[in-house]
Prior knowledge:
Layout: E1 3-4, E2 7-8, H1 17-24, H2 37-55, H3 57-63, H4 68-85, E3 93-99, H5 105-112, E4 118-121, E5 129-130, E6 133-134, H6 137-146, E7 151-154, H7 163-166, E8 175-180, H8 183-194, H9 197-206, H10 221-229, H11 237-249, H12 251-254, E9 263-267, H13 268-273, H14 275-286, H15 313-337
Parallel strand pairs: 3-7, 3-8, 4-7, 8-9
Antiparallel strand pairs: 1-2, 5-6
Amino acid sequence: MRSVGGQKRGNSSVPDRSLDLELRATGQTLDGGAQSPLSFLAGKARRHWQWGRSEGWARLIEEDELNPLDRLHRSWASHRWQAVHRRPRGDAKPVYLVGVQRSGTNMVVRGLDRAPEVEVHNENDRRAFQHYRLREDERVRQLTDRSRAKVVLFKPLCDSHRVDGILGATATPGLALWACRSVEGRVRSSLAKFGDHDLTVVRAIARGHGSKLWQAQRLSPANISLLRSFDHPGLTPASASALFWLVRNSLFFELGLHRRSDVGLVSYDRFVVDPATVMMAMCRFIGLEFRPALIAHVGDRAPKVPSELDIEAGVRDACEGLHLQLNAAARRWEGDHGP
């Protein structure tokens, strides 16, 4: 068992005060509870300020759907579609977009949201979410049953570990899309948006204090042991972010989602290279009509020279096998639902 600063590492029963303070700065607590609304909003505002300064305010407006003209246009298109098609309530199909944060889910949502027959409940929508967690099943049923849309899209990323249960929450059978991204792409995006938050979470889980965090739910004993094996003073934020990518994406296979016909695997990296093919696969899977407007937003960002990531070799090696497995599964799913 490794030790740092005189304190034993491992499954200690004594909570780490510093870890709890670091988690509280991001709106979480070690006991899995939520902070007060004021503290939560303060943490959210701090993250948005950092994100806006590092990535640009235009990206922040895009990510949080803060452009009122865009929202008005989508709302009008949706109302017009519903007026023409007059679908009965209770006939909408729920679709859940899940996966690891910073895996391209915002790009997927932006595309599907341009289909007027899709009603979107993003994770900042308080009707469906509280502190980024999906509300109770009854609320999901109510939102789906009341909708006149063809598809009701939810994005419960923090509940990805229980998507197999969520799929049975509504009368109309649901579908799920698990979004994945290369480990390096995800790590870069996560560090820009969340800083060293994954480092705090990984350490909390590795030391046995994070069992009630959503990030730790349904992790296999093998992956918890893996996190403990890398819990040392030199663990970098990039390495921790890569480990988080590994243990959360592993759930796609560990929960048997790759064997289900109602769950699809979408590769962000494939989406930005061949958006038409990937969007066509998503539309066919969900039951939507493909149109070019759904991919008009893809590829409109200037490329950046990737920075070097401080991911230790052992972590990279641990991620490599899963990366290949995800890519192969995504290509198979895309081929099964392609044109």
